[in-house]
Amino acid sequence: MKKTERLVIRRFPARPTMEGAGVRLKRVLGYPERELIDPFLLFDHFGSKDPEDYVAGFPWHPHRGIETVTYMLEGRTEHGDSLGNRGVIGPGDVQWMTAGGGIIHQEMPLVSPGGLRGFQLWVNLPKSAKMMDPRYRDVQSCDIPVAETPEARVRVVAGSYAGLRGPVRDVVVEPLYLDVTLGDGGRFELDTPQGHTFLAYLFEGRAFFGSAPAEMEAEIGLLFGDGGAFTARAGDGGARFILFGGRPLGEPIAWRGPIVMNTREELDQAFRELRDGTFIR
Ligand code: CO
After folding, report:
1. Do residues 203 and 170 touch, judged by C-beta distance below 8 A?
2. Which is deepest, 93, 113, 163, 195, by most CB within 10 Å?
3. With 0-12 CB in 10 A as exposed, 13-18 as middle and 19+ as buried, what is 218?
4. Does residue 173 sit within a domain?
5. What is the 8-class DSSP label of residue 5?
6. How far is the CA of 232 from the centre of ligand 1 (A)?
7. What is the CA(63)–ligand 1 centre distance, in A?
8. Is residue 2 part of a domain?
9. Spatial distance between the Cα atoms of 233 and 242, rounded to a whole number of angstroms
10. How far is the CA of 126 from the centre of ligand 1 (A)?
11. Is residue 57 part of a domain?
12. Would residue 1 count as lying in a domain?
Protein backbone atom coordinates (compact mmCIF):
# COMPACT_ATOMS: atom_id res chain seq x y z
CA MET A 1 0.00 0.00 0.00
CA LYS A 2 1.29 3.43 -0.88
CA LYS A 3 1.90 5.59 2.15
CA THR A 4 -0.05 8.81 2.45
CA GLU A 5 2.20 11.76 1.88
CA ARG A 6 2.55 14.65 4.23
CA LEU A 7 1.38 17.92 2.69
CA VAL A 8 2.00 21.45 3.89
CA ILE A 9 -1.06 22.52 5.89
CA ARG A 10 0.23 25.75 7.46
CA ARG A 11 2.97 28.23 6.60
CA PHE A 12 4.69 30.44 9.15
CA PRO A 13 6.80 33.27 7.73
CA ALA A 14 9.66 34.06 10.13
CA ARG A 15 8.72 37.24 12.05
CA PRO A 16 11.23 39.76 13.45
CA THR A 17 11.27 39.66 17.27
CA MET A 18 13.37 41.16 20.06
CA GLU A 19 14.42 38.78 22.85
CA GLY A 20 16.85 38.53 25.76
CA ALA A 21 18.62 41.82 26.53
CA GLY A 22 17.96 43.11 23.00
CA VAL A 23 18.74 40.37 20.47
CA ARG A 24 17.10 40.75 17.08
CA LEU A 25 15.95 37.36 15.88
CA LYS A 26 13.29 35.75 13.73
CA ARG A 27 10.56 33.84 15.51
CA VAL A 28 9.21 31.08 13.29
CA LEU A 29 6.99 29.31 15.83
CA GLY A 30 5.92 30.35 19.30
CA TYR A 31 3.08 30.91 21.72
CA PRO A 32 0.26 31.40 19.15
CA GLU A 33 1.20 28.10 17.46
CA ARG A 34 1.60 26.01 20.62
CA GLU A 35 -1.46 23.79 20.15
CA LEU A 36 -0.65 23.09 16.50
CA ILE A 37 2.98 22.13 17.00
CA ASP A 38 2.74 19.90 20.12
CA PRO A 39 5.23 18.53 21.42
CA PHE A 40 7.22 21.59 20.29
CA LEU A 41 6.74 25.09 21.70
CA LEU A 42 9.01 27.49 19.93
CA PHE A 43 11.47 27.76 17.07
CA ASP A 44 13.73 30.82 16.73
CA HIS A 45 16.14 31.64 13.94
CA PHE A 46 18.90 33.97 15.02
CA GLY A 47 21.17 35.33 12.37
CA SER A 48 22.94 38.58 11.74
CA LYS A 49 26.31 39.85 10.61
CA ASP A 50 25.85 42.99 12.73
CA PRO A 51 27.12 42.48 16.31
CA GLU A 52 24.67 45.18 17.49
CA ASP A 53 21.88 42.71 16.72
CA TYR A 54 23.19 39.99 19.04
CA VAL A 55 25.93 41.01 21.54
CA ALA A 56 23.44 41.93 24.26
CA GLY A 57 22.72 38.20 24.43
CA PHE A 58 20.52 36.36 26.88
CA PRO A 59 21.78 37.19 30.41
CA TRP A 60 20.89 35.04 33.42
CA HIS A 61 17.27 33.82 33.22
CA PRO A 62 15.31 30.82 34.50
CA HIS A 63 13.55 27.95 32.74
CA ARG A 64 11.25 25.22 34.02
CA GLY A 65 9.22 22.49 32.33
CA ILE A 66 10.95 22.44 28.93
CA GLU A 67 13.97 21.22 27.00
CA THR A 68 15.89 23.34 24.51
CA VAL A 69 18.02 22.35 21.54
CA THR A 70 20.33 25.09 20.24
CA TYR A 71 22.00 24.43 16.89
CA MET A 72 24.75 26.80 15.73
CA LEU A 73 25.66 27.30 12.09
CA GLU A 74 27.94 30.34 12.36
CA GLY A 75 29.60 32.17 15.21
CA ARG A 76 30.12 31.22 18.83
CA THR A 77 28.01 31.44 21.96
CA GLU A 78 29.27 31.28 25.52
CA HIS A 79 27.00 29.77 28.12
CA GLY A 80 26.84 29.16 31.83
CA ASP A 81 24.21 27.67 34.13
CA SER A 82 23.20 27.04 37.72
CA LEU A 83 24.49 23.45 37.51
CA GLY A 84 27.98 24.90 37.14
CA ASN A 85 28.34 24.15 33.42
CA ARG A 86 30.43 26.61 31.39
CA GLY A 87 31.44 26.41 27.77
CA VAL A 88 31.38 27.76 24.25
CA ILE A 89 29.57 26.27 21.27
CA GLY A 90 30.76 27.07 17.75
CA PRO A 91 29.79 26.40 14.14
CA GLY A 92 27.96 23.10 13.67
CA ASP A 93 27.78 22.38 17.42
CA VAL A 94 24.62 21.60 19.36
CA GLN A 95 23.76 22.46 22.95
CA TRP A 96 20.93 20.64 24.53
CA MET A 97 19.38 21.39 27.93
CA THR A 98 16.67 19.92 30.10
CA ALA A 99 15.33 22.66 32.36
CA GLY A 100 13.18 20.14 34.25
CA GLY A 101 12.30 21.44 37.73
CA GLY A 102 14.50 24.50 37.27
CA ILE A 103 17.67 25.90 35.79
CA ILE A 104 19.07 29.40 35.54
CA HIS A 105 21.36 30.00 32.61
CA GLN A 106 22.82 32.60 30.29
CA GLU A 107 23.67 32.47 26.60
CA MET A 108 25.99 35.20 25.36
CA PRO A 109 26.95 35.30 21.66
CA LEU A 110 30.57 36.34 20.97
CA VAL A 111 31.36 38.82 18.21
CA SER A 112 32.47 36.81 15.17
CA PRO A 113 33.58 38.08 11.75
CA GLY A 114 31.08 35.78 10.01
CA GLY A 115 28.24 36.91 12.27
CA LEU A 116 25.89 34.70 14.21
CA ARG A 117 23.53 32.13 12.74
CA GLY A 118 21.62 29.31 14.37
CA PHE A 119 18.37 28.00 15.74
CA GLN A 120 16.76 27.34 19.10
CA LEU A 121 13.98 24.80 19.45
CA TRP A 122 11.90 24.43 22.63
CA VAL A 123 10.58 20.94 23.22
CA ASN A 124 7.87 20.47 25.81
CA LEU A 125 8.29 18.01 28.69
CA PRO A 126 5.47 15.60 29.51
CA LYS A 127 3.61 16.23 32.79
CA SER A 128 5.42 13.26 34.34
CA ALA A 129 8.84 14.83 33.63
CA LYS A 130 8.21 18.55 34.15
CA MET A 131 10.02 18.58 37.51
CA MET A 132 12.84 16.15 36.68
CA ASP A 133 16.45 17.01 37.50
CA PRO A 134 17.92 19.56 35.10
CA ARG A 135 20.73 18.45 32.77
CA TYR A 136 22.84 19.86 30.07
CA ARG A 137 25.14 18.77 27.26
CA ASP A 138 27.28 20.21 24.46
CA VAL A 139 27.74 18.17 21.31
CA GLN A 140 30.59 19.02 18.96
CA SER A 141 30.06 19.32 15.24
CA CYS A 142 32.37 16.36 14.52
CA ASP A 143 30.09 14.09 16.59
CA ILE A 144 27.03 14.76 14.44
CA PRO A 145 26.78 12.00 11.82
CA VAL A 146 26.21 12.95 8.18
CA ALA A 147 24.32 10.86 5.62
CA GLU A 148 25.40 11.72 2.12
CA THR A 149 23.85 10.86 -1.23
CA PRO A 150 24.53 12.57 -4.58
CA GLU A 151 21.40 14.68 -3.99
CA ALA A 152 21.35 15.31 -0.26
CA ARG A 153 23.55 15.92 2.74
CA VAL A 154 21.78 15.20 6.02
CA ARG A 155 23.18 16.00 9.46
CA VAL A 156 21.46 13.82 12.05
CA VAL A 157 21.20 15.92 15.24
CA ALA A 158 18.55 13.85 17.03
CA GLY A 159 16.66 10.67 16.19
CA SER A 160 17.65 8.27 13.41
CA TYR A 161 18.05 8.60 9.68
CA ALA A 162 19.60 6.18 7.15
CA GLY A 163 20.90 3.96 9.94
CA LEU A 164 22.63 6.87 11.68
CA ARG A 165 21.68 8.00 15.16
CA GLY A 166 22.01 11.60 16.28
CA PRO A 167 24.06 12.42 19.40
CA VAL A 168 21.23 14.32 21.14
CA ARG A 169 19.62 11.27 22.73
CA ASP A 170 18.06 12.25 26.02
CA VAL A 171 15.34 14.67 24.98
CA VAL A 172 12.34 13.07 26.70
CA VAL A 173 9.91 13.09 23.75
CA GLU A 174 12.63 11.61 21.49
CA PRO A 175 12.24 14.01 18.60
CA LEU A 176 13.77 13.71 15.16
CA TYR A 177 15.96 16.69 14.21
CA LEU A 178 17.66 16.75 10.81
CA ASP A 179 19.58 19.45 8.93
CA VAL A 180 18.96 18.70 5.24
CA THR A 181 20.96 20.30 2.42
CA LEU A 182 19.81 19.57 -1.14
CA GLY A 183 21.64 20.38 -4.37
CA ASP A 184 19.95 21.76 -7.46
CA GLY A 185 16.69 19.78 -7.83
CA GLY A 186 17.86 17.33 -5.15
CA ARG A 187 15.35 14.96 -3.55
CA PHE A 188 14.88 13.81 0.03
CA GLU A 189 12.52 11.13 1.34
CA LEU A 190 11.68 9.91 4.81
CA ASP A 191 9.20 7.43 6.26
CA THR A 192 7.39 9.16 9.12
CA PRO A 193 5.35 7.62 11.96
CA GLN A 194 1.61 8.31 11.62
CA GLY A 195 0.27 10.65 14.26
CA HIS A 196 3.56 12.44 14.87
CA THR A 197 3.83 16.19 14.37
CA PHE A 198 6.23 17.15 11.57
CA LEU A 199 7.57 20.64 10.88
CA ALA A 200 10.27 22.13 8.68
CA TYR A 201 12.05 25.44 8.56
CA LEU A 202 13.33 26.28 5.08
CA PHE A 203 16.19 28.74 5.60
CA GLU A 204 18.08 28.68 2.31
CA GLY A 205 16.88 28.45 -1.27
CA ARG A 206 13.61 27.11 -2.62
CA ALA A 207 11.91 23.75 -2.38
CA PHE A 208 8.75 21.77 -3.07
CA PHE A 209 7.27 19.60 -0.30
CA GLY A 210 5.20 16.52 -1.08
CA SER A 211 3.67 16.52 -4.54
CA ALA A 212 2.18 20.01 -4.08
CA PRO A 213 3.03 22.36 -6.95
CA ALA A 214 3.73 25.35 -4.67
CA GLU A 215 7.39 26.28 -4.45
CA MET A 216 8.36 27.45 -0.95
CA GLU A 217 10.92 30.15 -0.44
CA ALA A 218 13.22 30.77 2.56
CA GLU A 219 12.67 31.85 5.32
CA ILE A 220 9.52 29.96 6.14
CA GLY A 221 8.26 27.45 8.70
CA LEU A 222 5.97 24.66 7.50
CA LEU A 223 3.55 22.38 9.32
CA PHE A 224 2.73 19.11 7.60
CA GLY A 225 -0.47 17.12 7.75
CA ASP A 226 -0.39 13.56 9.02
CA GLY A 227 0.98 10.79 6.81
CA GLY A 228 3.58 8.08 6.43
CA ALA A 229 5.88 9.72 3.91
CA PHE A 230 7.71 13.04 3.82
CA THR A 231 9.28 14.13 0.56
CA ALA A 232 11.04 17.29 -0.52
CA ARG A 233 12.65 18.44 -3.74
CA ALA A 234 14.89 21.48 -4.04
CA GLY A 235 14.23 24.13 -6.65
CA ASP A 236 16.95 25.67 -8.83
CA GLY A 237 19.96 26.55 -6.76
CA GLY A 238 19.29 24.00 -4.02
CA ALA A 239 17.73 24.32 -0.59
CA ARG A 240 18.48 23.79 3.07
CA PHE A 241 15.98 23.12 5.82
CA ILE A 242 15.64 21.84 9.36
CA LEU A 243 13.14 18.99 9.64
CA PHE A 244 11.83 18.06 13.08
CA GLY A 245 9.10 15.79 14.34
CA GLY A 246 7.77 14.07 17.42
CA ARG A 247 4.79 12.46 19.10
CA PRO A 248 2.32 15.04 20.46
CA LEU A 249 1.89 15.07 24.25
CA GLY A 250 -1.80 16.07 24.19
CA GLU A 251 -1.52 17.74 27.60
CA PRO A 252 -2.63 21.20 28.76
CA ILE A 253 -0.07 23.96 28.22
CA ALA A 254 0.29 26.77 30.80
CA TRP A 255 3.04 29.10 29.55
CA ARG A 256 4.39 32.35 30.91
CA GLY A 257 7.73 33.64 29.60
CA PRO A 258 10.50 31.08 30.07
CA ILE A 259 8.35 28.65 32.08
CA VAL A 260 5.94 26.10 30.61
CA MET A 261 3.81 23.96 32.91
CA ASN A 262 0.41 22.24 32.74
CA THR A 263 -1.64 24.47 35.06
CA ARG A 264 -1.91 28.09 36.10
CA GLU A 265 -1.22 27.07 39.73
CA GLU A 266 2.09 25.50 38.70
CA LEU A 267 3.05 28.72 36.91
CA ASP A 268 2.13 30.85 39.93
CA GLN A 269 4.18 28.56 42.15
CA ALA A 270 7.21 28.84 39.84
CA PHE A 271 7.10 32.64 39.85
CA ARG A 272 6.57 32.69 43.63
CA GLU A 273 9.67 30.49 44.02
CA LEU A 274 11.64 32.83 41.76
CA ARG A 275 10.71 35.77 44.00
CA ASP A 276 11.48 33.80 47.18
CA GLY A 277 14.79 32.46 45.90
CA THR A 278 13.66 28.82 46.21
CA PHE A 279 13.34 28.14 42.47
CA ILE A 280 16.53 26.10 42.17
CA ARG A 281 16.23 22.87 44.15
CO1 CO B 1 17.18 30.31 27.89
Report:
1. no
2. 93
3. middle
4. yes
5. B
6. 32
7. 7
8. no
9. 14
10. 19
11. yes
12. no
- Return contacts of 58-61, CB within 8 angstroms, 24+ apart: 58/19, 58/20, 58/21, 58/23, 58/106, 58/107, 58/108, 59/20, 59/21, 59/106, 59/108, 60/104, 60/105, 60/106, 61/20, 61/104, 61/105, 61/106, 61/258
Please give the Cα distance from 216 to 42 (Å, whole number): 21
Each residue's pLDDT expressed in tens, for the chain with a length of 281 residues: 678 999 999 999 999 999 999 999 999 999 999 999 999 999 999 989 999 999 999 999 999 999 999 999 999 999 999 999 999 999 999 999 999 999 999 999 999 998 999 999 999 999 999 999 999 999 999 999 999 999 999 999 999 999 999 999 989 999 999 999 999 999 999 999 999 999 999 999 999 999 888 999 999 999 999 999 999 999 999 999 999 999 999 999 999 999 999 999 999 999 999 999 999 98
**What's the CATH number where 272 sits?**
2.60.120.10
Mapped onto helix, strand or coil, the DSSP state of residue 36 is helix
* CA 223 – CA 237 distance, rounded (Å): 23
Distance 5 CA to ligand 1 centre (A): 35
- Domain containing 255 equals 8-276
Residue 35, classed as helix, strand or coil, is helix
Taking the centre of ligand 1 as the mean of its atom positions, its distance from the CA of residue 104, in whole angstroms, is 8
